[in-house]
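S.,

Sequence below, as promised.
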Amino acid sequence: MPIRYQIDDVNRIVLTTGVGTLTDQEVFEYKTSVWALPRVAGYDELFDVREVQRLDVPTAERLKELAQLAASMDVKAPSKLAIVANDHITSEIARVYKEMRKLDRRSTKKVSVFMTVEQAAQWLQPPGKKRPPVTKFERPSRTEDPEPPPEQ
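The prediction came back faster than expected:
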């Protein structure tokens, strides 16, 4: 699975890692499955693509479609998406996505692109709150079950 994620309900963040070969279709599937879960509405996200070895470069139209889909799933509460990319092409694609998100009036998620997880984690830190360091979740080891945790 080229996209792994971990939902941290305590800190209201989805930690996502792309590995191997990543296609735009896989990103769409991730977006429509994980971000459709009511429990993650309004959560922040850290999407780390440093371990992607091959990126099937999406067309501008496909990036626009992804940005529109993502904006349509946003809730009124503002949240953040930090994309961590350490190569030029992936960083530029992420920056184009960021700009396309800004152009959609429905978008309430602020997007930024970083070279390191540490920089992204610092930017994601809520004002006046302390989250544990995101770097410990840097490489989620499994894909979350989309079912919510049992009630206690």
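The longest strand covers residues 44-55.

Coffee later?
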